[in-house]
Amino acid sequence: LALAADIDRSYVSEIELARFSASVDLLEKIARALDVAPKELFNERG
Question: Which of 2, 20, 34, 44 could form a disulfide with 12 if both were Cys (CB 3.0 to 4.6 A apart)?
């Protein structure tokens, strides 16, 4: 994922561990790397 999104691996890890928050731009890069819409990166609660 980090390679496909052109993001440092350690930064991706910190986001996964909820130590850092991702910017909108970064979320868009991750979504493109995963070939999903950015909204798919979020859980829906209801």
Answer: 2
pTM over 0.90: no
Question: At a CB cut-off of 8 Å and minimum separation 6, what does 43 contact?
Answer: none
Residue pair 34/1 in contact (Cβ under 8 Å)? The answer is: yes
Non-local CB neighbours of 35 within 8 Å, separated by 6+ positions: none
What is the Cα–Cα distance from 35 to 45, expressed in whole angstroms? 23
Q: Count Cα neighbours of 43 within 13 Å in the Cβ-side half-sphere.
A: 2
| pLDDT digit string, tens, across residues 2-37 | 999 999 999 999 999 999 999 999 999 999 999 999
